[in-house]
Amino acid sequence: GTNSLKLFGHAIVTGAVDNFDQFDSTDTARAEDVNKGATLLANPSGSFTISQKGTMQVVLNGGHWNVSKNSCLDTLEITENGWLNLAYRDAVQLSRSFRTVTTDTIAGTGGNVAFSIDMDKENETNVLTDQLIIHHGADKDASHRADISLIADSSDSTKHHSVNWLIRQENVSLGNVTFEGAGAANGEAEAWSLVFLSDSEAQTKETLDAVDWKKLGNSSEGEVGSWYLTKKGESSPEAGDIENFGSSAAQYYAWRSDLTDLRHRLGEVRYGAQAGAWGKLLYTRERASGLAGHSFKQKTYGVHIGFDTLATQSEQSAWLVGASFRYARADQE
Fold it and tell me: Which has the least CB within 10 A, 12, 125, 146, 308?
């Protein structure tokens, strides 16, 4: 028969689903239906394990499923901002283990699927990423957002895509499957996004350069293939703020140099400078450091001339009025 795990609204559960029929097993198993709030009411911890034969359907209509173990089901439907959280880690899991959810079909729009991946250490032999396997794609168009957590910075600057796929569509489907989404590594401003690489394109995968990867789309168009994580040209939202701060460094140092020069002149007046012409040569050096070892250097050369005249003078005070002209040139690296 058909059994369902249905989570609506704010229902949140943690657990696993194992459908033995996916593996043609004859093992006896227990079937269990979980509807809105039932699991949470029956088990305060919100944890569950469903093992069964037959057809297993998971519907996340705004609900949130934290996947605690590899899971296998027939239909996955996500709507109304529901969440399939493969990146779930509880407090007792000190070592990072990765999850795989296998489904025959996927459905719905407006859902979220959370993944984590270790970009530093993943390679052909170490599949250090959460994965979603879709056997037969979608009966009609399905579109979801992938939320990617990079659990380590990618120190290899030449690595412009993941070696392993995060999502795999194993057969041609009637519907188009789309996964939008991006992630940023801790401390990195550069954004990463999911792109779809069909099996026909994958035959020349090793010849694709960074520009080719950026041109790939995020929809399967019904084809067989996989979604990989790639470094995109656009920046993450935080990068705009960082760039704006960086571009204002030169103006800040110019302003600070003017202010320093003005303070020097006021000090000269305070300690006895009188009316008349004056002039001075300027030379300053500034340096600022940014993220990932990037830095800004500036050398400023200039001349400052002026003329002051005594406006009023008494036993208690004296007023000098003057004007000055400053010209400077900055060399930046």
Answer: 125
The C-alpha atoms of residue 89 and residue 84 are separated, in whole angstroms, by 13
Contact 191, 184 (CB under 8 A): yes
pTM: predicted TM-score of the whole model, two decimal places = 0.66
Q: Cβ neighbours of residue 41 under 8 Å, at least 6 residues apart?
A: none
Contact 151, 100 (CB under 8 A): no
Residue 175 and residue 168: Cα distance in Å, rounded? 15
**Continuous segment of H or E residues that includes residue 266:** helix 249-270
Length of the chain in terms of residues written: 333
Q: Residues with Cβ < 8 Å from 278, sequence gap 6 or more?
A: 305, 306, 307, 308
**Looking at residues 237-243, what average pLDDT do you find?**
50
Let me know: does 116 contact 130? Beta carbons within 8 Å.
yes
Cβ neighbours of 41 (radius 10 Å): 9
The Cα 65–Cα 72 span in angstroms is: 14
**What number is the average pLDDT over the span 151-163?**
68
